[in-house]
Amino acid sequence: MANVMAIVSKAVFDKMLGKTKPKLGDVLATNQYVSNNPRLESVKGGGALFLVTVRPPNEDLWLVAILESPKHNGTAWVSAANSTPMTDLGKVKDKLKFDSGNGIQAKAGALGMSLQTPRVLTDGDVALLRAASGGAAKPDAKAAENAPTNSKDQAKTKAVSIDPWRWRAPRSRREALSLAFWTALNPTEQERHARAIERASNGAVRYVRGHAFGGPTIPLFVHRATGMPMHLVPGGSFAMGLSPRQTELLSKLDGGGSIADDDALRASGPIEVAPFLLAARPMSAEGMMALLTGESADASSAQAIRRSNTGKYAALLAESSMARAASSRLAVIEAALDSAGLRLPSEAEWEWAARGGGDALFVSGSDELPTAAKTATNRLGLARMAEEPELCADGWSSSHEGAPKDGRARAKSANGLRAVRGGAAKAWAQRTGWKWLLTAARRSSADAADGAALRPALSIAL
Question: CATH fold of 169-462, please?
């Protein structure tokens, strides 16, 4: 058990406040902190999560909430509602030591960035923070302030609060790009690995920047030939399909119906998914046309995918939307994607991406039944997941099996059909339309009469 300080980004803090202007002394109405960062695991067993944010224009450090004894629900750390008023930590900021003994060491303009990694607090730090916010200090705040930073007690605290397995440096790039380690890397290390991905793609993608979508910082790339934004989906291991917890929730939502029996996968695992890039949203008609014809705004990249038969591909698809792929044209679509180093995601990859590393029932990251077919951008920055039927590389299977243990696509089926995920937007008017927002719901391409949207993936050569 330990107490941890974690930062709330300005964007997330402003979103939490809505139209309310932040004011010192007010209580921020929150009971959760969305994160899967392994460095927060040390709060288990009764620790507290001290949430801070950096306020412009003078980089004031505010304590905005304390979550007492939080529990992780697969997506967020949840506790009783915060009761601590927002407090300016200007008087105690320089007195914080953390378990490293180094305190806050940030250059001007870099305070927020320096606090991206959660920090384990000493007992003295906790006393200072509680006293500053008007709460009881345990132990005495004055004694904590004067405590030596290299005492035997502090060394003992380090040994107890740090899990060596979680805190060690990753042994390889593949391991560094796993969900567990990626979120624990500092921004400099994240960018270093993102640049390595850029180089490994042989120039197919260009790294833009890192961005947090209410969760861990995720690197954004642009596919040069199509201009399509792509996000890193860190690798990881998960139990594909409906977990026992999800099955119980679903049986209540469905009113005793048969969705869990007919359309969803049984829990299986562990499935190991390697890190990969995935389009931030379904591919546009313009993007597909650029892919097929080579007529892209980036002429040098377009030249790399020009083939003598691209005209034939375009002609075959001219009668339908370029963003969709009917089952009879799958070979054409896959050949076009392959020419640009892209591919269809496997079903396991799609579900892992939709889950965002969590265990929520719906792709929105919630266990609550959505009130509309629209889905929010998930914590990996992927927009419109499950709104449209999205084509996967796996051959269709009517069984409730999951996927190969390595997360790759199942072999093509004899009937030529493919697994398709999502499709809630068009089916919402039906009683069971919401089921396609389930992370574990599968349909065949035969169920998508209008074809399936494309959300291309790109393998990472490690």
Answer: paralog of FGE (formylglycine-generating enzyme) (3.90.1580)
